[in-house]
Amino acid sequence: MSGMNSIWPYLLGIAVGSAWVLTASCAFSQITPDRTLPNNSSVTVNGSTFNITGGTQAGRNLFHSFQQFSVPTGGNASFNNGLDIQNIFSRVTGGSVSNIDGVIKALGTANVFFLNPNGIVFGKNASLNIGGSFVATTANAIQFGNLGTFSASVPNNPALLTLNPSALLYNQISAGASIQNSSTATAGIAPTGLSSSGLRVPDGKSLLLVGGDIQMDGGRLRAYGGRVELSGLTAPGTLELGVDGNNLSLSFPPQSTRGSVSLLNGANINVSAGGGGSITVNASELSITGGSSLIAGIGQGLGSVGVKAGDITLDATGTITLDQGSTVQNTINTNGSGNGGNTNINAGSLSVQNGAELGTPVLGQGNGGNININARDTVSFDGSNSDNYSRAITSLQPGATGKSGDIQITSGTLSLTNGAFLGSSTLGKGNGGKITIDARSTVKLDGGSHADSAVATNAIGNGGDIQITTGSLLLTNGAELSTSVLGQGDAGNITINARDNVHFDGVEGIASSGVESSLLTEGVGKGGNIQITTGSVSVTNGAGVNTNTDGRGNAGDITINARDSVTFDSVGKYPNGVVIPSWASSTLGSNSIGNGGDIHVTTRALLLTNNGQLIANNFGQGNAGSITIDASDTVVIDGISLNGLLRSGVLTVGSPGNGGNIVVTTATLSLTNGGQVSSFSSANGGDITIHARDAINIANGAQLRADSLKQGIAGNIEVTSDSIRLEHGLIIAATTLGNGGNITLTPQDLLLLRHDSQISTTAGATGNGGNITINTPNGFVVAAPNQNNDITANAFNGAGGVVKINALGIYNFNQRSLDELETLLGTTDPSKLDPQKLPTNDITAISLTNPTLSGQVNITTPDIDPTRGLATLPTVTKQASKPISSSCGAFNEASGGSNFTITGRGGLPPSPDEPLTTETLWTDTRLPVNTAKQHQNKTHPVKPKHQPIAIIPATGWALNNKGEVTLISTATNATSANTPTSCPTR
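The chain above was modelled as a monomer; its predicted structure follows.
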């Protein structure tokens, strides 16, 4: 027993000692050095602090190597390095992941490189306390120029590695070689004075996470004024590493296989400061979701004139996705001063959805950064989150001074849907930015989406331009492109170059789709121009192309160049039943001061149907713009609309100013069903000039009008074509109070009026009637009989105009005097007499209240010329062997002679423009025997001697089965030179 008693104290000491060693070993095993260095690392534990000493130094580089390296919650891994050390390199050679949920600390200003090929996880409590930059990587080795590598996969001797590192080597990829960051630990005070959190390096330094895949789940990274980079490889490769003091950066070879990067659940990267500060992400796929954000720029109250913030660069070989309200911002904050950095996106595709945003706003003083998007395939913005539509914006905010940044998108296709938008505007003092889109295939905006550049209320500056180059442009369901001014400045221009087609389509109950540049109420400046160049343009269902102003300044011009066709058509209705026109318009409102813009359309075919319109109006103080149409083949204006009220047309209106001019050049013009080409004005009407190479048809209430509605002079109308046909059509240059305009018609072949058609320059009140000149020296002026087709140059109290007609022939018109009108209509009271509704086809130039002021009607037709149109026939020199019989046998019915019988009413129709009836018959009543005898006659008549041909003048006309006018004549007192006078009379 005494022996056992003596040994117990000894055994107890061993047990207690062993327990202490085991506890110490468990704590120490979180950071365990290996034995691979000439001078190995040493780790001692002091409470929760792991003191790391030793290591191998090469020049100003210090190398550490660990079997495992993890920092528990509340732990502190402290590198006790000399202050002369520039770079600390730590590798983990074991097979475990490094879990960091405490602090990594280093002395002085050394950069810290942490290398673990098996993966690195930063927990919520992870933080950095270092004086230089920090690199965490799952690469296998670090390259040092041509001196060698520092490898974690194949541990080697780094004694000669005295240079700065030059590359990260990935040659043995581990399946779990990822980096995760969830750090939200307190990280001191930011330069703005606000608290900071997450993994933070000193201001101006770099923080690089270089893994395989990288995930930030609610984690935060801070490098104010410095650089944050996320990137990695998932296949063997080399990433070049640039080291400029504490500024570190990576370079990816083009063919490298990148890892994916994701930020979710409010993850955040912030590098904003008084200057500098950049973020770079290189990935295969990049996902920024759940309200996560990337922030750069000039911080609140920071910066100075001339400094520049760094850029945000997102580069992915696949898709970059921003979702659920996530943002990428490069901002000049309130009271900040300096120029903002750019946001650069390079990807296979970019998707911005559910309220996500790209932005470079200016709230202080300086120029905003640009947003540059380059996607190989697709860029899409979808605003399905109605509380915060997805967008890309550059803006100068209220109180800010400088310039808004530009937006440039280059892609295969661009899609904006469900209210998404691109915006570059100024709300302060400075110009808005430019929006440039270059999409190889298609640009589509739908569902109220829009791209706009605006000078807002109280802002001073010019709006930016919008320029689109693509294959096809589609604006549907209320989508718009717009530039506008509500403050002081000029609106930006809109330029569209579409290789194939442009289509704008409205929708019931939603604001119209289209393109607009406007100077709005209280705006002072100039409206922007709109130019569209494409294959074909189609504007339908209430969509439009507009340059409008309600402010003080001129409206912009509209220019459309389409190789094939331009169509404006409206077939849809709004909920209240009103048909909204599809139009191109340059309009000034009633409170505006300025001139309307011009509209130019150049194409092969222009079609205005179902209330399609070209409009240049001015209802304010100024003149309406002009409209010029050059259609190589045809212009079709069909006035039918669903509600029967609004009509298709080309229209300029000046009230109180002058109406604009209209010029149409084409091959054929078809104006039907109430369609119009008109210029109205409360002052002077604009002129209308029509040059149609082949034909002009005006039918079913359609009209050419150049009217003055008050005391001005009506505009002039000049029409030139091969043929001009009016079928219940109107050509009018009239005035209510002033003088009528002049009408000059030059048909090469024909002017035809049918069914209540009118050509009129009538003046109201004391105004004088305008002049009408019809010049067709080789053609005809024809009216269908008794269909009330009139040519009038009348006046009520003023002087009648002059009607001059120079034609080869004029048919079915009466020249009326005032007395004849009184007899026909029973009155000459101007209040009761409508001189445009005469009972027959009339030509008048009268003054209704003063016959001495009646005008003149001068009609010039050429005298009959027997030599006109004749051809010389050949002379027959050889006499026939036997003369033609001159007997009366052919005229003797009793001996079987010929007979011509008229039955029924027969003959010609009552009017030359009516068809033959079935009662008009011709019958050969000769007896069959005579016919047989006649067939047996073997006698061959000789050719007659040449006789002079009688020239018979035309005395009438008829329409042939093609609707063409054909001259006819009736020979009188003609006898046959070979018929004996003794033959019986028939």
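The chain has a mean pLDDT of 84.
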